[in-house]
Design brief:
Rhomboid-like fold
């Protein structure tokens, strides 16, 4: 028998090498298909904006943004899809670049750790909650961008890291959240409601995942996230109808 860090093992077993997979992802990992798909959709949408959406698409605006962006009157006027499509549109190349960088870092960190289905559930809840927050605080402002979803991923990464005992990682993500909140409140033309809504929505979704993870039934977790998506979407549509100008 041979002494090893895990106890006494036979010589043949001691020479074996077992692949160990970390309980969390790492930024830049390739095991994140949903993350790269979301990034691709955002980039493709921006290309459509720039090529066929209007002369101001590169610097912000354009027909595609007007048709798919979020504002209360549009949602109340029979266009509820805006609560989702707005998250794939961006008002300029810098807006897109910052959001895609954040999505890349957070997505390649979180998706391999919790699985693609849970990741998509958390992201979708965050996007819808971001739309809800934007409709509450700035219903008449045209809002676009993936920031609501990204703030939700920040909250989720923090809470899931804490739940798994990864305090150093949680501290790093928490600092990232604080920096972005300072940026949110100090720079003009940023949707405060969208950022805060996404942060809260992602946090609630992560708490659901943490609470149900002990049950060992992934289908139950996914079902809860889908239900949370439905409730948040309905809430956003109701708020849009309340906030829309009379006569819409």
């Amino acid at each position: 028998m041979t002494t090893t860090p895990v106890g006494m093992r036979c010589p043949e077993c001691a020479r074996q090498r077992t692949q160990v997979r970390s309980s969390v992802g790492r930024p830049g990992g390739s095991d994140a298909p949903a993350t790269f798909t979301l990034m691709g959709l955002c980039v493709a949408a921006f290309v459509v904006e720039a090529v066929g959406g209007g002369t101001n698409a590169v610097s912000g605006g354009g027909k595609i943004v007007a048709d798919g962006g979020l504002f209360a009157a549009g949602v109340a006027d029979g266009e509820p899809y805006r609560i989702v499509t707005a998250a794939f549109l961006h008002a300029g190349i810098l807006h897109l670049a910052f959001n895609m960088f954040a999505l890349y870092v957070l997505g390649t960190l979180l998706e391999p750790a919790i699985g693609t289905a849970r990741f998509l559930g958390i992201y979708t809840v965050s996007v819808l909650a971001g739309s809800l927050g934007a409709l509450l605080l700035s219903p008449d402002q045209l809002t676009v961008g993936a920031s609501g979803g990204i703030f939700g991923l920040m909250a989720a990464a923090f809470l899931i890291a804490r739940h798994r005992g990864l305090d150093e990682l949680a501290s790093q993500v928490g600092f990232f959240v604080v920096i972005n909140l300072v940026f949110t409140f100090s720079v003009s033309n940023i949707s405060i409601g969208g950022h805060l809504g996404g942060l809260i929505g992602g946090g609630i979704a992560a708490l659901v995942v943490n609470a149900l993870h002990r049950r060992g039934d992934a289908r139950f977790e996914i079902g809860a996230l889908v239900a949370l998506c439905v409730v948040t979407a309905v809430g956003a549509i109701v708020v849009a109808n309340v906030q829309a100008p009379p006569g819409i």
